[in-house]
Amino acid sequence: MKHFQLICISMAIMLTSNMLLAKDSNSKKTYGEIDFIKAVNGKSREDVAKILGNPVKKTTPIMPTNAAQIVHENAKIVPTQKKDVIEMWHYRNVVSYNSKQTYKRTELTFINDKCSNITYIN
């Protein structure tokens, strides 16, 4: 009988601790679409990291082979001396689109250290 009581008590403790851990992991702040745009648009990487924390993933764009030549021929663009520094930061479940659901991924594009594009992806 004592073993049964020990098992019941340990299961109750495990269940309670799991519920507390689940509550902590879901306590991450979520934003509405417009509120999120107002919070991060035009901000530097440092400011965004203070607001949202570190991203799940960081990527940089890669230009396909021969793409620059095709773009310059078609658009008649004069190449600039300075290249832009572009980086994308990815976050998960940060922006909600209704009261119950969030976008699976949110991608922020930084050009020369300013958030210039925000993409919501499901």
Structure in words:
This protein has helices spanning 2-26, 33-40, 45-52, 67-75; strands at residues 31-32, 57-59, 86-92, 95-96, 105-111, 114-121. The chain is an alpha+beta fold and 122 residues long. It has one domain (29-121): Beta-lactamase Inhibitory Protein, Chain:B, domain 1 (2-Layer Sandwich). The strands form two sheets. A four-stranded antiparallel β-sheet has the order 2-3-5-6, with no helix packed on it. A two-stranded parallel sheet has the order 1-4. It is elongated. The relative contact order is 0.16. The model is unreliable at 17-27 (pLDDT under 50).
Short description:
With 122 residues, this protein is of the alpha+beta class. The chain has helices at residues 2-26, 33-40, 45-52, 67-75; strands at residues 31-32, 57-59, 86-92, 95-96, 105-111, 114-121. The protein has a single domain (29-121), classed as Beta-lactamase Inhibitory Protein, Chain:B, domain 1.
What is the level-2 CATH architecture name? 2-Layer Sandwich
H and E order: HEHHEHEEEE
**Biggest pleated sheet:** 4 strands, antiparallel
Question: Strands across the major sheet, in which order?
Answer: 2-3-5-6
CATH topology: Beta-lactamase Inhibitory Protein, Chain:B, domain 1
Principal-axis shape: elongated
Q: Which percent range describes the beta-strand content? A: 15-25%
Give the count of helical stretches: 4
CATH class: Alpha Beta
Category from helices, strands and their pairing: alpha+beta
Q: Please give the radius of gyration in angstroms.
A: 23 Å
Question: Could you give the distance between the termini?
Answer: 51 Å
- Poorly predicted regions are 17-27
Got a strand count? 6
Helix content: 40-55%
Number of domains: 1
